[in-house]
Design a protein that fits this description.
This protein is an alpha+beta fold. Helix content is 45%, strand content 23%. The chain is built from six helices and four strands. It has helices spanning 3-60, 73-88, 91-106, 129-138, 144-151, 192-196, and strands spanning 159-179, 201-219, 232-240, 243-250. The protein has a four-stranded antiparallel beta sheet. A hairpin with a 2-residue loop joins strand 3 and strand 4 (243-250). Helix 2 (73-88) packs antiparallel against helix 3.
């Protein structure tokens, strides 16, 4: 085999190798393009899902409040009003909307699973929220489970409409027991006996500014007898660090 023939064969092998490499690179590029398009579509789809969640969150909560579980159409309507009031910063309007949202949730049983699910707690004065929920389970909500079994959820009471009849400025004196700190004298260490002593408390009264809101409401069609249920009330709504909360409820005369 002469020198020229060897050179031609070597050049042929090199050309074949280069063609193979180009084919591999082309195939790899095609795969990357397809993969990139797939990932891009997936990202856009994911972004769409996130936007949907944001919309739902905006509809069900605002700066201070979150709507209750399984809300009725009326609750959604009143919560929208509440969100608009929060955006406006008008505390009187917020107080009225808080009362309407509370009534629509608290006095509706048709969206509850049992007497442990007390409605309207989102709008109650936070320091007394647990006490009010416990009180409600033993009073207004005491027969919810029995009625749920007897009539079924859809036949239970549901608020049809709430009307605000009067709103006036008011103050409320909230009295509670506050723990006292047993601090040692200067230069002294606190003994084990002092650490295990019964915690001492002092009576403290805080005054809150707010509104006294009078409201009346009606119930929708139900198989239950609603004669003994509240249909009106006076709600004291106070400003608790910028958040309007119901601190007292009484029946209107």
């Amino acid at each position: 085999m002469d020198r020229k023939t060897k050179i031609r064969r070597q050049n042929r092998r090199i050309n074949n190798l280069m063609i193979l490499v180009l084919m591999i690179l082309t195939a790899f590029s095609s795969v990357m393009i397809i993969l990139s398009a797939f990932l891009s579509a997936g990202a856009q789809e994911g972004e769409g899902e996130k936007e949907t969640l944001v919309v739902d969150a905006d509809r069900n909560q605002n700066k201070y409040y979150t709507i209750g579980n399984n809300p009725t159409d009326l609750q959604k309507e009143y919560f929208t009003e509440l969100s608009d009031a929060v955006d406006s910063g008008d505390k009187k309007s917020i107080a009225e909307s808080v009362v309407k949202s509370f009534i629509a949730d608290y006095f509706t049983w048709s969206n509850k699973d049992g007497n442990y699910e007390v409605g309207g707690m989102e709008y109650m004065f936070v320091p007394e929220r647990d006490n009010f929920a416990l009180y409600s389970r033993w009073n207004f909500y005491a027969d919810l489970d029995k009625n749920l079994k007897q009539y079924g959820r859809e036949a239970l009471i549901r608020i049809r409409e709430v009307k605000i009849t009067q709103t006036v400025p008011a103050t409320y004196d909230y009295t509670y027991e506050k723990e006292m700190e047993n601090l040692p004298e200067d230069g002294e260490e606190q003994t084990e006996e002092a650490q295990t002593e019964e915690v001492q408390t002092e009576t403290v009264t805080d005054t809150y500014e707010g509104y006294r809101v009078t409201a009346e409401w009606t119930y929708g069609n139900t198989e239950m007898n609603t004669d003994g249920f509240m249909t009106n009330g006076i709600f004291t709504v106070v400003d608790n660090d910028g958040r309007m909360e119901i601190i007292a409820i009484q029946k209107a005369e």
